[in-house]
UniProtKB/TrEMBL annotation:
Domain Lipoyl-binding: 2-77
Database matches in Gene3D superfamilies: 2.40.50.100, Chloramphenicol acetyltransferase-like domain, E3-binding domain
Domain Peripheral subunit-binding (PSBD), first and last residues per copy: 137-174
Origin: domain of life: Bacteria
UniProt EC number: 2.3.1.12
Entry's cofactor comment: Binds 1 lipoyl cofactor covalently.
Family to which this protein belongs: Belongs to the 2-oxoacid dehydrogenase family.
Lineage: Bacteria, Deltaproteobacteria, Bradymonadales, Lujinxingiaceae, Lujinxingia
Function recorded in the entry: The pyruvate dehydrogenase complex catalyzes the overall conversion of pyruvate to acetyl-CoA and CO(2). It contains multiple copies of three enzymatic components: pyruvate dehydrogenase (E1), dihydrolipoamide acetyltransferase (E2) and lipoamide dehydrogenase (E3).
UniProt name for this protein: Acetyltransferase component of pyruvate dehydrogenase complex
Organism: Lujinxingia vulgaris
Cofactor: (R)-lipoate
Quaternary structure and partners: Forms a 24-polypeptide structural core with octahedral symmetry.
Catalytic EC class: transferase
Amino acid sequence: MAEVMEMLALSPTMEEGTLAEWTKAEGDSVAEGDILAEVETDKATMEMESFYSGTVLKLLAEPGQTVRVGDPLVIIGEEGEDISGLLSELGGGAKPAAKAKPEQAEPEEAEAAPEDTRESAPAAAEEAGNDDGRRIKASPLARKMAEDKGLDLASIEGSGPGGRIIKRDIESAKAAPAKATRAAAAAPSAELHAAAGISEVPGEQQPLSQMRKTIAKRLVEVWQSTPHFYLTMGIDMAAAMKVRKDINAQLAAAEAGYKVSVNDLIVKAAAAALAKYPAMNTGFAGDSLYAFDEVNIGVAVAIEDGLITPTVRNADQKALGAIAREVRELAGRARDKKLKPEEYSAHTFSISNLGMYDIDEFMAVINPPDAAILACGAVKQVPVVVDGELAVGTRMKLTLACDHRVVDGATGAEFLNELRRNLENPMLLLV
């Protein structure tokens, strides 16, 4: 019996994925656990395994197509099995959630008669919500045509079975009222574009990647819902830089194949401080706080499409060298989009370092479920006053962003002071 495999949620925050490549073709045999496709998620490019064994009977999406989680992706069954009935139930293999390419649209005569199998798909697959809470019945082709023509489905009366909107309804609909509705809804965006001069300058509108879509959505949600406050402190990094230089010289002599970075020192120092001040190692959940039992440090890594945060788990229990090796390995696979979901989730505190870009200081946005994020600037030689005398100092600025629902100013300040003690006395990190 043929089985439909749906788009899987390959990351904790994935809502839709872009099919990057099929690794199986129609007619190929497949076993349970075989890799079927590579899918671009909001975090990485992931391999999707088959849940079934048999023959690939039908691929329901094309490379480059975006498909929502839960929508059908491939049909697997016995070789030569008749799947016409199954395709009818799926609406001809096209789902309204998938962004089909124009050449994949059904031919015009496909909806000429109400009894067309494409018009008899289950209502659940053809309904979509409306602003007033009503459900709208429309075929996948009708939805695609309405979107292309800028029509509002809520303003169109369906002539298909059960009042379903079909192609001929779209063809006979007047676009003006729907365009007005769409223009009104897009007014704020249009005003912003006009104010910024975007509409006056030639350019190309570029689609967002799955990662950039998620970044945009989550950052807006966090910024609007989380009351941030910021604490900035200067750190004397002279001793830490000397210890780092000595460690790396010994690693080079031993041909260890890796170095300890400034960021590795910060991760280790922050982990030790979190273990001492567990009030910082918490999260906000609904109407309660959540105290984490592990100290897991998320390290922000810039990649081509945006930003991802690999997690160093139980960082307070790991030696500095182990942290250095793990961060290097995780960052490399993050840039290749090969991280596993468990490698970029479950962080309890985050660190974002722009020191390598010569940034003095900045304020970062908290990365849920964490209650705080540490923003690190560059280590620089600057003039300082020591015992009333002007001298050259080696300094770095750290800015701690805290969720005020969880952390108060005094708690954040105590944590920063402990972090400073760790970095200014780096031998403490080695014992």
